[in-house]
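Q: Two folds, back to back.
A: First:
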Amino acid sequence: MMKQVQEFFQVVTGALMIPYKSINFVISSLVTSLPLFFFLIFYEMIFQRTLVEAFEILNPPPGHSNRWDWLDPAMRMTWDFFLKLVLLGLLYLVPLHLLEFFNMIVTVSLASKLHEGEKPMALKEEAYEIFHKARLKDPFITYVYVLLLSICGLLGLLWLVINYYIISVRFWYEDLLEKEGFLYHVFFSVFFGAAFIAVLIKYLDWSVVWNTSIVFSILEKSYGAEALMISSYFSRGSKESGRLLMLVFFVWGVSLRLTCLYAGCSERGSGIIAQVLLFCIGNVLKWVVCTVYFQNCKKRTLEKIDGEVGLEDKNVNE
């Protein structure tokens, strides 16, 4: 475990050193993050207001006489709210991830060169290297794979959170249940809480493989399921450190949104701008970390394979 923690800090330190190696990396990251930044301001305004409305749907209305009708929030979902969910889904699937893909390609390409010790290039040369020589088809296919898998994982986590909130949180604070159902609902509260933790741990483990597979597709000739399998093979000995890395960025994103939601940032533009700015910085840093993590894992795995091959050759010669 200490070795994994040491590797965690080694990856973070290596990632934080990359912006200091080249001012062009900072400029390129800033320029490619601007479209994502402006779009996220618009997206987060809709997202935050939809979250507020969702909490109102999950909570029973004041003076509600029937204690069980509110347990089915779909009965109180309006058509306008459903259309907002559809709009959010479309914005999330297409423009948001296309802009993130564009930012990711530039970040990973430049970070990999700087981490390997290559001499920084001029901005014009960097743009030519990325957009004229880069194979965008392979990483895009892998990115679609990862997006679909990630959505499934997030929907599972969201479903568990909603069930835990309805069964546990509202029960404790509103005293909506009779004493006869106490043990029944305590059991399901513990069940959904434990299930959420278990699924979150697996989601973080999978996120490491998913993100490094995209990095692998950008840097190597591989895509789709093949990139996912190779990424899983390279990261076998560093699952704990990778899980810690993904946990940091997962908590970072959730904390920003919850803080902004609690502060009512959807009603004040300055709060949303600050949240989106921090989110974009974290997004760039996440892909730099994934690049450093992948290259460290690849180097260690190849060294291990070379050592095993050398040992076998030695045994054969003897």
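A: Second:
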Amino acid sequence: MADIETVKRQFEAVLHNVSDDVRSQFLSWIKNKINSGEWGDVTREKSNEDVMLESIQSDLRSELPVNAVSHTENIHFPQTGPNADCDPSTTVHVDAFLYDEDAIDDLCEDQEVQMNCCCGSQEVQPLTFITHSASAAQVKYIFNYALPDLSGKTVLDVGSRTGAVLYGAYLYSKAKHIVGVEIDSTFTSLQTAAVAKYNMADRIQVIHDDILNQGPLIASSDVVILNNVFEFFVPKDLQEKLWIYLFATLRNNTILVTVPSLEESLQQLKTGINLEQCVESIDLTAPLQQGRLELLDSADADDSDLTRIHLYRVLASHSPCQ
């Protein structure tokens, strides 16, 4: 009977001698076999990082309502663009970092979500779920697969909210300096408390401020995260001002991580920004294949969380990129 090292070599030889597409299908088949229990209990043990992230999630769930909207912030529902169909009476805010799909199903069964629906009959009008935070899967995908090595780099999260991106950068990357800028005082306090409790202050800094006051920080950042950053929080004219300011301040070669794409974020705004001259899109085909395999339950699982993440490299700054 072959020993473990022989089996490893044979397995690697199989992967080496097939196309990328076949390799992806083969690995997905293996994962499905493992998840089904057909090969016995071979469940992968959680990493220390995963355990810590889950502990932070649990702490934050106890501090926030289900919708994770603080009493100190104002939500602006878009009047134009892809999210203009979000009706306040049937739109439910559920924080994706705090509640995954299974947890949302449990909330619906327990009628926790319904209590946060403004009005209107749920039997007549379907609910629309929206989140303003990155999910745990998105955070892991960004820092484990999508981004390059961040050793010695500065990561900036614009509108850091519950701090999901900050904790992810700390746990799953070697970034030297991780900064969250958040204008809402409630969320700033929550992040600061979490950073202190989990001894992350050596690399994480939380700043309570308007991003418009943080030009030097933007210009010195190697990676800037923009996750559903402005659309639901400020009116259209201020969104335009913020985007123009960002692109006038970012330095060349900075990597932008955005949800949704820059094209979608800017399509309804009058910014004068020419994206073709400002940025180049970074191909995520290979990271996406690996992320699907490692982070999703099966090859057929919904991967929209991952495919909504876009990466760009800044080509031109300190100009309107026109």
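Q: And?
A: The beta strands are 91-93, 128-130, 154-158, 177-182, 204-208, 223-227, 255-259, 279-281, 310-314.
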